[in-house]
Amino acid sequence: MKILFTVEFYEPRKGGAEEVVKQLAERLAAKGHDVTVATSAVAERTKRILNGVHIESFAIGGNLVTGIRGADVEIARYRALLCGDFDVVLNYAAQIWSTDLAFDVLGKMKAAKVLVPCGYSRLKNPDFKQYFEALPGYLRGYDALVYPAANYQDRRFDEAHGFGEKGNVIPNGAAEEEFLAPDNFHIKEKLGIRTKYLAISVSNHYLAKGHDFVRKAFRMMKYRKDTTLLIVGERVSGRLRNRIGHFLLDYLWCWLAGVFGGNVRLISGKDRALVLSAYKNADLFLFGSRVECAPLVMYESFAGKALFISTGVGNIPDYAEYAKIVRTPEEMAQATDHYLENEAERRALIEKAFAMWKEKYTWAVIADEYEALFKSLCQK
After folding, report:
1. 72 in the same domain as 193
2. With 0-12 CB in 10 A as exposed, 13-18 as middle and 19+ as buried, what is 225?
């Protein structure tokens, strides 16, 4: 099959959407399919073919509500690609330019069309009221809808508007090649971490990711001298206003906690070997996010054998028997103290989650599910 994925950002940018599309694109390319990814142009991208995947970059940004940024010639070039000779086109996530620009040309596209809504994170935002009023009209142009979470608001919205028959639940996951391999990075040694325990929080520096929640919980634990909190992520890039806003609202406070808050450390997440080592050496993963659909870090926490302690956002409540869900920083602090002091209980929960991931949530299994869906659409 000839397959086109569209996503706002892609390698070398790091983030959840980037990782999902990378895993799917590279695995389908390895199976012999002709795979292209259309995405935003970034200065640090130096290759047009990466691990067998063709990358088409466009100087476009924004969405239909905040405004599409980009020259008319770039927008026309992108839409021409969408209408090109593909068997399947998958738009990953709504409310971004790479999906929003497809809406008006869905009828002209030759390929089977798939949308992965990724939660409709702005569904309740009044600024997006007209966007979601118009969305059902566009959903008619898709042949399939894919939900990483079985019980989240994007699926409920689509079913309420009569699109239940197009729905498919295919989860997110974690890469077995990465998490079953030995740790050759040795992050504690590299970073000089000498505490008995390591708690990590992997997410970029957006306010909605809840670093303030995690920092407050760690502060309530009196910055345990036997535990290091390692926050792994990137500062926001893009428009100057966004960079300044997220710097002042999130990154600055994380940085100050790292300077004055005891055993708090901040590191970049660009080096994948470092990130994997963090998972494999962590005792706990602390997640305070406010908005998620099916967070990749949860599956990676299961695979890395780090106990996942999190707010109950997105589909995390579906995994309540494998993780600890908390409502407040106080509850996160109490849960963290409890599981650090009760190793047998912590280990039992970790091993239960790991076994579940290994059986159901490896990217090899998930890529097969997407491939089967694509083949069934091409046969219609």
Report:
1. no
2. exposed
